[in-house]
Structure formats: structure tokens, C-alpha cells
Amino acid sequence: MDDVRCVLKNVWGYDSFRPLQEQSIETILAGRDSLTVLPTGAGKSICFQAPALCNNGSRSDGRHSDGRHSDGRHSDGPRDQGLAVVVSPLISLMKDQVDALREKRVPAALINSTQNETEKREVAERIRRGELRLLYLAPERLLSPKTLGFLRQQQCVRYFAIDEAHCVSQWGHDFRPEYQQLKTLKQVFPEASVHAFTATASQPVRRDIARQLGLCEPSFLIGNFDRPNLTYRMIRSRQKMQQIMEVVNRHRGQSGIVYCLSRREVDTTTQALRTLGLKAKPYHAGLTAPQRKANQDSFMQGRCDIVVATIAFGMGIDKANIRFVIHTGMPKSVEHYQQESGRAGRDGLDAECVLLHSPRDFLIWSDVMHGEAGQVARDSLQAMFELCNDVKCRHKAIVEYFGQDYGVMRCGACDVCLGELELHDQSSDIARTVVACVQELKQKYGAGHVARVLAGKSDKRIFQSNHDRLNSFGALGDHGPMAIKVWIQQLISQKYLRRSGSYKTLAPTESGRRLLRGQGTPKLTATGRSKKSADGSVSFVPAISSLAAFDYFRSGDSIESVAQKMSRAQSTIVKYLADYIRHHGINDPTLWVKPESAQRVLANKHLAGDGKMKPIFDHLGGEVSYDEIRITLACDG
What we know:
The protein contains 29 helices and 17 strands. The protein has 4 domains: 2-222, P-loop containing nucleotide triphosphate hydrolases (Rossmann fold, 3-Layer(aba) Sandwich), CATH 3.40.50; 230-419, P-loop containing nucleotide triphosphate hydrolases (Rossmann fold, 3-Layer(aba) Sandwich), CATH 3.40.50.300; 423-530, Winged helix-like DNA-binding domain superfamily/Winged helix DNA-binding domain (Arc Repressor Mutant, subunit A), CATH 1.10.10.10; 549-635, no CATH class. The chain is α/β, with parallel strands linked by helices. α15 packs antiparallel against α16 (375-389) and α25 crosses α26 (570-584). It holds the Pfam family Helicase_C. Residues 57-81, 509-534 are annotated as: Disordered.
């Protein structure tokens, strides 16, 4: 390994390896198949790049048998054939890595659809002359008969590195069918080893990757999934733009990513952030390739602070100083969340990851998956739902999901351990009601049915089973089934209930039975949201829909004109205007309201009480409209 350490120092400037890098490289140099899982930011690319610069023999002068120095530079000398082929799913990811290697004077190249025939022939000639050490290809190009035949003829491939290897598994979070054909590599190149690399894969996915690629007695090298420098907050979404700005304001002028579930939400959120004076750019598949590249480059080079994106923005993003990642909706798996949130704090410094979620997110993903996704995908969605809604340390939950132990009692870096969750003041009563219902249903039903019984839903199955006659029926009728399912999950996590069997039926544990006798202190969330912002302050932030109208108001457009341009009711535009007034601290209502009407409203503003306008409207005999009242009160603060 002295040869590799020399390369590590001379090419990358590092004096030592990060965890598991050395073991992964040793496996490659030994010619043994492997699967390496290193979370985002742990330096997995070096694991498959560095061995390509090392040959079997080295000389005391620091040069190899092919005349190449240990820093990757070439000198005149005999050729020692040996090529590492890296399989990568994205052209942009390949280009970024090859450009970075070339800057370090490493002989690397790529072949992709953006090149002309002359450029491709030049790469082929360099392979024939044995000049290249690393060749990047997309899976479909590598597996073309022409490419396979050429590489086989040259007898030059030392090993294959499959980057983003979770793409090979249908259980993974970014499955790509073309990846599954890579299992032919072991047949076509029996003398070459195959090494899979990914940043995120649960135990079932890891086993499936090895099987799909046909790895021969592979070494499994699994890094630590915990990112102690990240602070996780999982908050029920309410006024989403205000929640986003609470995070952004804690990181003014710093780099961040805002992930949205749809292109439309990306566009509206980007515009809202810009309206609020922030440097933000959108990124999604609906933009042209040049637009996406320009926006990504702007972010990477520090010309904009925030990228608002769908999950199309992700693979290969190598920006170390991202200080926050916000999800405006729940991802469909813990794997997705771990990888996307993991783009924060890659420099090892503190960073914040905030996930805004609602029960509606679960229903949306369930509808998307209906009839298409397998059980593994549904289980992944359920696990993500549980992560969002649990009262268990977020770090512990993520680490244990990936099959590792978490030995710390309190992480001190999540909303649960920081005491930011608001607990229901009737947690014990609600918990006993839920456990009693499970008992009354004779432990034969799952969480969904229990929740519907407790909510008092009169559906066909409940009637047929006579469960509408149970004492528990409607006992939590003030709450919807989704809220009750959240509490059921929290009771399972706290071991008052347990799931069992293929139908995941619920049953009380011994602790649950003691709870029915008045023993135990269960913790159930009141709203699922943070009871206070991290800095203890809250400022007014307009809703995203309101911000879309701000440019019109700023230009002096009338209410009627804005209503026509936005195809909204005038009363809706007046609400947007009220937000505009509050946001900019405007105190003169006469721009929109007759002076005498404004004076009458202000003279009777004490009647508004908790903000209701009807008492003023009634007192003035309907002579001043609701719109005039709303605008005047907004100007009064």
C-alpha cells in the first residue's frame, strides 16, 4: 500500500485515508470483487480512482514499470497495459470526475453521446497505446457489442468500478434497467474484477446488488451511516414559505438546497425566494440541458446561494460547504432522504437538514405507487413515514434503518433530542384509548383498520365486522385516521404495541398492558411540528401564492388588473395584497381604499378582536366592504 499512499499524497494531497478507503483499495488491488457503501461525502470516488494509478510493481525511484510516476504523470518507457473502466449513470457526473482527474494530470477519458466521431476515435487510440488509466462510460455504451468487443480485443481491462450501484437493484431508490445487464461483465471479462460503489443501500439492497452483478465471493465494506455534524429536523408543514425562510434566515449568504416533489413547486418556490431578495436558481428535468448546467455551475461557483430542485439535482454534486438542505415534502424512502440530506456538511462542519412533511405526502406517494411498486418500495415508504413522525432520535433511526448500531443515548443534533417537539398534553389518555382498541379488536387488525375504527369511519369493512358497535368506535373522532396512525407508530416505537405476521397485525406488549392499568408515560406529538424555531423567533413571511403577485403590486397594477392577469378572484388578490402590505410595512391604505372608509375602519378596529372582520362590517352597516376592511387592517399592522 506504500504505492497507493504515494498516489494519495501526490495526486490528491491527502496524508491519510478516510475510513474504509484503504480496505476498499486493497480489495481492488487484490483482484477480489467487492461492494463498498460509503455515505455521501466519505470519498468513495478515490476508492476506485487511486488503484488505477498503481501497478503490480513499483521502483525505488518512484516510477512504475510503464515509466509512470506515482503522482500519475507519464514518462517515456515501456507500456504496462491496465485500464479501470468506471460505469456512471450521468454524463454530467462523468464529465465532472474526468475534468477533475485531468486537472490533477491523471490520464482519464470518457466516451458519451455528446462527443463527435473524431473525439471517440482519439479515446480509442489512447486505449490502444495504453495511455489511459481510467475510462468512464454509461452502462448502455459499455454494453454495446462494439465497445465490449473492442475492450476484449485490447485485453486491457484490470477492473470495473460500478458507481451509483444501487441503480442495479429494483429495491434501490433509483433503479435503472440498463444497470441489470452489467452482470454480463463477469462473463465477458472473467479475468477482471468488478467493484460496486454506492452512497446508500440497506441490507436487502446490498445483497441484491451483489446478486444482480454476479459478484464472486465479494467483500462487503460498509461505512458508518451516521453524520454527526448534521442536525435533523422533521416538521409538519403548515405555512411552508415561512418555514423555509426560518431555515434560510439562519444561513443567510450560505449555500443550500431546497428539494421539492414537483417541477411546478420548484418554479413557484424559486420565484418566491427571488421575490424575497435571495439568489436562487431552479433545477429540474423540465429545463433544457444548457439551463440546468448553467444553474448548477452558478451554484457550484458561488454565484447563487440556493438551488431549488427536484431529485434530478443530486448525483455527483461535490460542493463541500452546503450548510442546509430543506425538503418541502416527504421523500419516498429513507435511502432517498439519506442521500439528499447527506449533501449538506460534506466539509465536516455543522449543517442543518429540515424536512417539512404532512400526511398528504404519504397518500400522494401511495397513489403514485399503486399497482406499480413492489412490497419493498411500499415498505421503504412506510419506513420514511415512520422516520418523519416518530419521537425517536433521528440519527439513531437512520443508522439503525441501515442495519448499524447507534450507541449514543442523545445525539444533541435533532429536533427530538433537542426537545423541540411539542408533545400532546393528553398523551397517556390517547395512548390508553389506542391500546384498548387494539385489545378490543382481538389483535387481528393492522394500523389502518384500528385508526379508522378510532376515528369513527363508517366504511363497509367496519360495518360488516360490527366494529361500529365497539366501545372504541369513534373514541378519537376529533382526529383523522392519518393522525391516529402517527400515534400508533409512536406507540410501536415506544414498545407499547407491536406488529406481527405478514399482515402486520397489532397487539399490545407487556408495557402496553401495564399502560391500561395506568402505568407508563408514553410520548405522543401534538402537531408533529417544532414548538419553537431554532433561534426562538418568528417573523411574518408571505405565502408562496401571495409572493407570485408581488411584482404586479410593485409595478402599481390595480387589484382588478392583477386578478385578471393571475386568473384569480378579486377577494383572493386582496389577500395577496394584504400580505404584500405586511411584508413591506406599508401603513397608508388610501392607495387602495377611500380615505373616509379607512378612517371608519380604524375608528372601529377594536371590534375585530381576534382578527375577524365581520363585527366591523356589521357595525358599519355593510357600507365598507370586506376587501376595504382587510386592506386597512393590514396597513395598521
